Amino acid sequence: MLEEAFTFEKLLEAHKKCRCSKQHKKETISFEINLSANLVELSRKLQNKTYKIGKYKQFYIYEPKKRNIEALSYKDRIILMAFCTNIIQPKIEKKLIYDNVACRKGKGTFFGIKRLETFLRDYYRKNKTNQGYFLKCDIKKYFQSINHKILACNLAMSGLDNEDMWFIDRLLESRYEDTGVGLPIGNQTSQWFGLFYLNIVDRLIKEKLRIKYYVRYMDDMILIHNDKEYLKYCKQEIEKCVNEKLNLQLNSKTQIGQLKSGIDFLGFRHILMPNGKILRFLRSQAKVKLKKKLKLLKKIKTSELVDENYIKVRLNAFNAHLCHSNSMKLYYKLKSKYGFK
Fold first, then answer.
1. Rounded-to-integer distance, Cα 188 and Cα 69, Å
2. What is the DSSP string of 46-106?
3. What 3-state class would DSSP assign to 211?
């Protein structure tokens, strides 16, 4: 119920989450000057259904690749936080399969990496070989291609009531209303919708195709099987499902490969060796990006634009990302090259 999701107390909790690392931003400070009055006004407008989503600000990010980010104002982000926390997460989370691993509590990039490793170990334990295959599927322009009507219909069939759907309809109408296709990447709700939209594909893979070793990180899907021909059949069924039921397309990165050659997933190449050992190396593209980041960090350090603590935090972040891989020797070599201890 919207009344329960958008109470003053729930909006206050959402504000506290939204202000983390944003407390020095101008719009955050402006909102907090009259915090109580602003929250009361938001609650009133939402509960009597007179609230309108504001305009989007657009900017680009370039990691891991160039993306157009569309962000709402601070007050709208509070509302989306409250909606996701109190409505979307409780009702959608239980509909998702366990191995849908992006942007969920207790999951994420490292969880996805470890999950793939678990599958490779179990595959070797049962088959005593690294001779096997994987199907890697990727959706062409995923967020830009999500159909509003299909999304709304699937959400309505998943336990969201009429009031929930009223808010979702207003949200979908706030952007790309003319085409009815696409979600703004900057919205928290878009992350949940992205998790949910391919749920029908997850169910196909797990329940009809009976693939035991399957993991998905947003629109990146990995299926592991000992039969290449069966994976070709799986690819046909997945492609048919995304085309006919979701109006999506698989992109050119979709491929079938050998486990012994390695699986590219979440920035690493995961290789199952003949003895069952799993090696995890940075992908070539990720190596180039790491070199660029360390080179830039060296320039920043030399110019004295930041303090030593900032440098330490950045280096620790790189270390945390790579410490569970077989690329640490490369990392230490690059650190030394750019003058870091």
1. 12
2. HHTT-----PPEEEEE-SSS-EEEEE--HHHHHHHHHHIIIIIHHHHGGGS-TTB-TTSTT
3. coil
Q: Which of 135, 146, 144, 138 is nearest to 250 (CA)?
A: 138
Q: Cα-Cα-Cα-Cα dihedral of 115, 221, 205, 94, to 10°?
A: 60
Find tokens 């990039």 and name the residue.
109
Name the pTM for this structure. Answer: 0.89
What value does the mean pLDDT of the chain take?
A: 91
Would you state the torsion angle of the CA atoms of residues 108, 334, 328, 107, taken in this order, to the nearest 10 degrees?
Answer: 0
Distance CA 244, CA 311 (A): 50
pLDDT above 70 covers what percent of the chain? 99
The set of residues, in sequence order, having a beta carbon less than 8 Å from that of 210 and lying 6+ positions away, is: none
Helix (H) or strand (E) holding 257: strand 255-258
Strand partners, 281: 269
pLDDT tens digit string along 257-287? 999 999 999 989 999 999 999 999 998 888 8
Report the length, in residues, of the chain.
341
Structure tokens of 304? 């004295």
Virtual CA dihedral for 256, 258, 259, 264, nearest 10 degrees? Answer: -50
Q: What is the pLDDT of residues 211-232, one digit of tens each?
A: 999 999 999 999 999 999 999 9
What are the angstrom distances between the C-alpha of 255 and each of 138, 202, 246, 296? 9, 18, 20, 35
